Amino acid sequence: MSKEKLVFIYDTWGSGAGAIFARVREYKRKLGYRITVLYKYYNGGWKTIASKAVMDLDEAAEFVAENTLASKEQVLAAFKENGLVIT
After folding, report:
1. To 10 degrees, what angle do helices 57-67 and 72-81 make?
2. Most distant CA pair in the chain: distance in Å?
3. Are 84 and 61 in contact (CB under 8 A)?
4. Do residues 76 and 66 touch, judged by C-beta distance below 8 A?
5. DSSP label at 15?
6. What are the residue ranges spanned by the domains of the chain?
7. What is the 8-class DSSP label of residue 43?
8. Which of 59, 58, 11 is nearest to 39 (CA)?
């Protein structure tokens, strides 16, 4: 796995003009991941919604679901679609 992945979660067509992403970065020297939930405006700008250090991808999916309108199952499916292995 590369050290950082940008995972598309969903479009926000109904509530605004943008999309929600989750950036998953694996730490080099310690166990765990850095998760950042991002909002991308269609004019090209980015906004950080939330950021947290987590131990596994299951906890990461829970964090993303808490800070967005997506369910945990939807986030786990997006992680799996992008090649992130849930252990």
Report:
1. 130
2. 41
3. no
4. no
5. T
6. 4-81
7. T
8. 11
Give me 61's structure tokens. 């999916």
Residues near 9 by Cβ (< 8 Å), separated by ≥ 6? 19, 20, 21, 22, 64, 68, 70, 74, 75, 78
pLDDT at 58: 93
Output the tens digit of pLDDT for each of the chain's 87 residues: 458 999 999 988 766 678 999 999 998 888 899 999 999 988 889 999 999 999 999 999 999 999 998 999 999 999 999 988 776
The pTM of this model reads: 0.86
- Can you spell out the DSSP letters for 68-80? SS--HHHHHHHHH
Type of residue numbered 5: K
CB 58 within 8 A of CB 70: no
